[in-house]
Design brief:
By secondary structure, this protein is mainly β. It has one domain: Jelly Rolls. Helices cover about 10% and strands about 45% of the residues. It is built from two helices and 18 strands. Strands 1, 3, 4, 7, 14, 15, 16 and 18 form an eight-stranded antiparallel beta sheet that branches. Strands 2, 5, 6, 8, 11, 12, 13 and 17 form an eight-stranded antiparallel beta sheet that branches. Strands 9-10 form a two-stranded antiparallel ribbon. The longest helix is centred in the N-terminal third of the chain and has 16 residues. The termini are far apart.
Length: about 230
């Protein structure tokens, strides 16, 4: 058997498949195809390269989300990402998108989510030294209530930034773990606990890989070793 010439992502994909079988995880992305996945929102470019899922900005396009077909409720999701520091991004979890306007009640106010708008929990990707926020693995609610953690569901913004600045690998691969059990969502970044919140607005929905809108074309975010384990 010849291994010469295999890419780094290909080697990692093989290792992930072995570990997945041992630990109860299954690949959410097999490194080869996104057949059956749905592009929602804008029309950013997505491709597969060296076993990685790659998203690329297209000037003038709104937030774009490439979504696997299945919905999930209770689960553990793990992935690695590498992103151009100028590009904000994220991964949607328990998210929704309807063909009609949807109203959400929050703090005595009504939020109207337009038809076709992706909305729901997002695990943030934020590596920009210029912005100096470093809120990767924070929880934002896309298209609806905004920042949950740090935000009105807990977490101190300054402390979250300080930790994020210390553990974020700018211009390198970062690992994220997300655990959803009932009304509790927890995240880890590079092995360290990040967010922990309780919120029961949505219990089940789709996962989506986001390319954030940006005026500059050609900025990229990459994901690899994407795997999931459902929890009963």
């Amino acid at each position: 058997m010849k291994w010469i010439g295999m890419t780094v992502c290909a080697w990692l994909a093989i290792g992930t498949l072995v570990a997945s079988a041992e630990e109860g995880f299954v690949p959410l992305f097999d490194g080869k195809s996104t057949n059956g996945w749905t592009l929602r929102g804008g029309k950013a470019e997505f491709r597969i390269e060296d076993g990685c899922l790659v998203g690329r900005t297209v000037a003038g396009q709104p937030n774009s989300f490439l979504c696997p077909p299945k919905e999930y409720g209770n689960f553990v999701l793990e992935f690695e990402y590498r992103v151009d520091p100028k590009l904000n991004s994220g991964v949607q979890i328990r998210s929704q998108c309807f063909d009609h306007d949807t109203k959400i009640e929050h703090n005595g106010k009504t939020i109207t989510v337009k038809a076709g708008r992706v909305h729901g929990y997002q695990v943030e990707i934020d590596n920009d030294p210029g912005r100096n926020r470093f809120w990767s693995a924070g929880i934002y609610e896309e298209g609806a209530r905004g920042w949950l953690y740090p935000g009105f569901r807990g977490g101190d913004g300054a402390a979250f930034t300080e930790q994020g600045r210390r553990i974020t690998k700018v211009n390198d691969w970062n690992s994220v773990r997300v655990e959803c059990r009932g009304d509790t969502i927890r995240t880890w970044l590079n092995g360290e606990p990040r967010a922990e919140l309780r919120d029961d607005r949505v219990a089940r929905g789709f996962i989506g890989f986001q390319v954030h809108t940006h005026k500059e074309p050609g900025l990229e975010v990459r994901w690899r070793n994407i795997r999931i384990r459902e929890l009963d």
